[in-house]
Amino acid sequence: MGNGLRCVRLDDGFSCYVPENSSGSTDEIGFIHAEIFRDECYLRGGAVLPADAVVVDVGANVGLFSLFVKRRCPAARILALEPMPETFRALWANLAGVDGVRAVRQAVGAGAEDAVAFTYFPDLPGNSTRYPGTKKLARQHPTAGALLADAREVVLPVRRLSEVLTEAGLPERIDLLKIDVEGAEADVLAGIDDRDWPRVQQVVAEVQGHRGEAEAVLELLRGKGFSADAGATEDELDDLGTRLITARRPSCA
Questions:
Q1: Strands (E), the chain
Q2: Which residues form a coiled coil (predicted)?
Q3: I need a surface site. Which of 25, 34, 191, 250 has the fewest CB within 10 A?
């Protein structure tokens, strides 16, 4: 395709675009595809998708969760947010022609900031993060550590999620807010105004548990009226201190 992208063919005839990298590794996208489509990882904690679901996908990566939602619920409306330029190009290519999905290149956090340094990992772009310290355990993994060696700084603006939601013009009700932003999950939640919290019916967040982030996110969500629990992720992620938090309003029970 050019433009720094290549097409990768995965299981069941599925293919998608990913950013070009020097290692040529497809391990990460294969793992993510299996997580989402085979294991339905983001629904494991009991989150449900109505037929006309409205989903906000924060940390959309190359768009696989958005594509999973559209396969499950063709009438769904999705706002997919991804800040990394190379990854966003792949996201845009993968979602081209998919009705009901709006892709926006944007980082979100607790407050508006003009220039924030992020770390982009070309060989493992799904691990790119504002907080590279969260990758300490991953760097000790024999395979992941080598792929994380190539790290580049990318400076990006950050906005609050409520501001982005206002501009997106989504329906009042948001059925699922999915967050997977490599250590900044609490920041994303802190960027939601009080007026927007009643709109959100369910939250699924993959959180770095070894820094106490999971406990902080659980406390925040419970304080907003959700029933929230932290479950295990895939074995490899669980070993890295990652937890999957699922929060639901009583009306979703």
A1: 5-9, 15-19, 54-58, 77-81, 101-104, 107-109, 113-120, 152-160, 176-179, 202-208, 227-232, 242-248
A2: none
A3: 250
